[in-house]
Amino acid sequence: MIETEIKFKIADAAEIETRILALGGSHEKSFFSRNTLFDTPKMGLKKKGCLLRLREEGESAIITFKGKAMKSKFKKRPEVNLRAENAEKARALLEGLGFEEKWVYEKKTKYLRLESAEITIDEMPVVGHFMEIEAAPREIEKTAKALGLRMREGMKETYADLFRRFKKQGLLRGKNWVF
Question: Global pTM?
Answer without folding.
Answer: 0.95
